[in-house]
């Protein structure tokens, strides 16, 4: 698939939408055996209720102009999987969900800050989150959601221009995922299977996977740049422990001696993440 990189990044709006599970979406567990590299869907239009039967008709459109318009994003944690739901007004868009190495902002081409070590790029064609020349927002929620669930970590806007609406999704690991569409209301649902990560290897500045994902996202958005190099992490640890600047000597790629006493080892838990200290041996 080749998609022109174009975007207007969604602006964050105060007042979060409901981030407490997807109560309006049937609880469909993701297929354990499904781990596609690409999912493409062409939706079937939902049936409309005849006006002469007394049955309520479809909900009012979010935009009078033709097209699919994003109205809500919801996330939820379930037994064995996490879920993100994109809800639309005006009909379901055509959607593509790919696993990618990096999600790039459209059209800038800069990486979209995410947490995790596996990433999905969701593109909705013929869709937007704004209506008309006046750019009235049909989606008034935040441009980035950070639930930090066991698998689903971050959902972030990646582009909205000329009928291409895209999002980056950061996942804790490379597990299976399942994409499907629902109608009444129109939704595209992405379920991502939980993956066991094992014991977190670090002890400082964080000592658990949930705290590491938050640290990684903060680091990817420009905070705490000293986490980018092992030596700077060890120096920060030494100042935190001894409250003075001590000489730090690198013994090998992952080992440092602090002053004349402590031997400190470091690691990078994920490829695109900050460094952490794993062990400290007092001299």
Structural notes for this entry:
It contains two helices and 17 strands. With 283 residues, the chain is mainly beta. The chain has two domains: 38-193, Immunoglobulin-like; 209-281, no CATH class.
List the helices and strands and how they pair.
Elements (H helix, E strand, L loop, with lengths): L37 E4 L26 E11 L2 E9 L4 E7 L17 E8 L1 E2 L1 E2 L4 E2 L6 E2 L6 E10 L2 E8 L5 E6 L3 E8 L15 H12 L9 H13 L5 E5 L2 E4 L3 E6 L8 E6 L2
Parallel strand pairs: 2-6
Antiparallel strand pairs: 1-4, 2-3, 3-13, 4-5, 5-11, 7-8, 9-10, 10-11, 12-13, 14-15, 15-16, 16-17
CATH architecture of the largest domain: Sandwich
Mean pLDDT comes to 82
The global form is: elongated
The SS-based structural class is mainly beta
Number of domains: 2
State which percent range the strand residues make up: 35-45%
Q: Which assembly state applies to the chains in this document?
A: single chain
| First-last Cα distance | 57 Å
Count the DSSP helices.
2
Q: In terms of per-residue confidence, which ranges show pLDDT below 50 for 5 or more consecutive residues?
A: 1-40, 42-57
